[in-house]
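Justification of resources, computational component.

The compute hours requested in this renewal are based largely on the per-chain cost of generating structure records like the one below. Each record pairs the submitted sequence with a full structure-token output. That output is archived, and it is also reused by downstream analysis tasks.
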Amino acid sequence: MAATFPGATLGRWHDTPVGPHTQSMYQIAFPPPLLASFLPWLMLNRDGLSILLHPGTGDAYADHIDHAVWLGSVLPLRKNVLLKLRKTASHS
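The structure output for this chain reads:
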């Protein structure tokens, strides 16, 4: 994936739930100009995995809940974690 999409930042596997996520996950970050080519690739190569695609606006709640797009099954998220992040950011 890194060779096909230079500019994408590959994360690491999280074998236990992290942040608002209730299942294991892998994170990939990419700049907005890659969306037009990266999204079709994800759609064709997700191999049955659920993929949460969201922006990084600094409002974790809005990014994960209001502005999110799912490929595959929608997985539950811990909204309480996202709300805590929102409250923490607003007090900074």
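The longest strand covers residues 9-14. DSSP finds three helices and four strands in the chain.
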